[in-house]
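Collaborator request log, item 7. Partner lab (contact: R.S.) asked for a structural prediction of Anti-sigma factor antagonist to inform their binding assays.
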Amino acid sequence: MTVIDIAPLARAGPSAPTTIRLHGDIDIFTTKALRLRLLSALRYSTSMLILDMSDVSFCDASGLGVLVGIRNRARAQGVTLALTGIRPSLTRILRITGLDRSLPIMM
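Returned to partner:
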């Protein structure tokens, strides 16, 4: 099951990014709850929403769909979505699907 920490982790001011840590698997069983929580987290975000993926062990196509959907919602609100802590297996999936070009990855 995926667990996320919703509270902004590093907000020094209104323009500071909101960082969310994701844990576990992002798959068909967890995407509904994840989508709802990420949409809720967008309320805290004013300039950038960073998803820390360092503890994500697996992400399937439904998980990628959630990431793309949240990116689109964030854009509509003027918020940039970025990923960090990407494991090699997820990096490969993002590259194969071409999402590495539309989902910014921070090192």
